[in-house]
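Sequence, please.
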């Protein structure tokens, strides 16, 4: 299988027939062996019946049906797990992504890239949706050092092996390029077409923006300290200990040489607080180290990623 297309679906019954036509037309003359995995994320508008008919008519169309709505990231994770293609391309089911861009993404992958991210250069959305997206993309690019114009564009292409080591939670699907870059994946970005939504309603809102911000904090921790949490928390523990010791020395000097009363002295309270926080930070770092070791060792996950080997053949 050359290509797996993963499409999360939530109440897109009006768009599904056109989606089928456009995907089929985009790949009809390419000679690419492909499958389309539709993940029904708890639709209530009859979308599943339409998808079921599409799958019965053409075995290249496959359907995964959730028991309830679990969210876009969960739908992508299920699709990625079921995909068997050499390259995996997720896309939205609302017809705003254009399947005609798929060959372009594949051509970029064939140039040697591991991840190719779509950039909706002429995005057909309201200003209220574009402005937060622009700000978020700049923030994410700056913090992760993976500079993309459009992290939120679902239309991306991934080599199969890049996705194998990445687990998705929350709203993490948009951060896959940054997570892939952590293991040495080569990332590129190409402009793609974007169409206005004709049917259905958007599932994005302010609450989702807040979840993205919180997940960005998680990504930053994973990128920098997932295998060494003591270096994050221990560092602040040492800073706190140092500040507490300095405050204690000043307090002692005031008591011994200036005869200052220690009754409700704010420096005495500050000293106790800083020393206590130092212990807490270091304890938190040690607990993080235990959790990190449990996470990697229990699952047999390496802390490195191998691109290729030569003359390496280890017998079990």
């Amino acid at each position: 299988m050359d290509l797996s297309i993963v499409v999360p679906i939530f109440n897109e019954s009006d768009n599904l027939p056109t989606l089928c036509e456009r995907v089929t037309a985009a790949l009809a003359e390419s000679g690419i062996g492909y499958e389309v995995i539709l993940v029904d994320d708890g639709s209530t508008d009859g979308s599943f019946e339409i998808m079921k008919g599409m799958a019965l008519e053409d075995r290249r169309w496959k359907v995964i049906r959730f028991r309830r709505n679990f969210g876009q990231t969960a739908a992508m994770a299920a699709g990625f797990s079921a995909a068997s293609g050499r390259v995996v391309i997720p896309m939205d089911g609302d017809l705003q992504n254009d399947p005609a861009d798929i060959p372009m993404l594949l051509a970029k992958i064939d140039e040697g890239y591991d991840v190719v991210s779509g950039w909706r250069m002429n995005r057909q959305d309201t200003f209220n949706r574009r402005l937060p997206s622009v700000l978020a993309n700049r923030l994410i690019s700056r913090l992760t050092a993976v500079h993309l114009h459009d992290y939120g564009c679902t239309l991306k292409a991934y080599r199969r092996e890049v996705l194998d080591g990445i687990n998705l939670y929350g709203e993490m699907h948009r951060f896959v390029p940054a997570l892939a870059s952590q293991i040495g994946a080569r990332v590129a970005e190409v402009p793609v077409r974007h169409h206005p939504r004709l049917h259905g309603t958007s599932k994005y809102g302010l609450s989702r923006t807040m979840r993205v911000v919180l997940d960005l904090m998680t990504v930053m921790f994973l990128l920098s300290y997932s295998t060494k949490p003591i270096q994050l928390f221990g560092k602040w523990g040492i800073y706190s200990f140092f500040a507490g010791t300095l405050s204690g020395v000043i307090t002692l000097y005031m008591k011994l040489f200036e005869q200052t009363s220690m009754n409700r002295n704010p420096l005495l309270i500050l000293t106790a607080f800083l020393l206590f926080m130092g212990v807490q930070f270091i304890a938190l770092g040690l607990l993080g180290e235990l959790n990190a070791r449990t996470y990697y060792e229990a699952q047999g996950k390496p802390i490195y990623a191998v691109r290729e080997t030569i003359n390496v053949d280890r017998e079990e």
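The chain has two domains: 3-224, 230-298.
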